[in-house]
Prior knowledge:
23% of the residues lie in helices and 42% in strands.
Amino acid sequence: MAQAVEAAKSRASRELGGKYLTFELGGEVYGLEILKVREIMGVMDITAVPRTPAFVKGVINLRGKVIPVIDLRLKFGMKEAERTAETCIIVAHVGEVEMGIIVDKVSEVLNIASEDSEDTPSFGTNVNTDFILGMGKVAGKVTILLDSDKVLSGQDLDTLTSAAKQEKDAA
Length: 171
């Protein structure tokens, strides 16, 4: 039985290896699978959409396409930070939606080897870690690897999709 558990953990860690775009939020380093990232851009004017959650900052017009923008700090329960020259919007695929994600600073693209990654540790039954793919260990530091498809719940995605559609219809 113990061998089966170890084999499953080993398979999961092998799947975590790959290239990740790393970025910072509140001094912590996070990573998104590079294949989910479309582009990185500076913060631009964001059109607020009423009756959306606080972490939904609004929508932007990206070359004729209206996409929703979220502040990942707020989604993760952190305090909103003042925008700086390093604040960026990462445009990424989240589920079926293309979305802008505001982060404090984009760091680099890291190639994290399978042997340098491991599963998300257990934090107990009351802590939802479904949005974390695992942990990458690079240069003595830990990078939290995010599952972009699970960072937002289905209800969050429905809200974002309708906000973008609402703004597009108003235009």
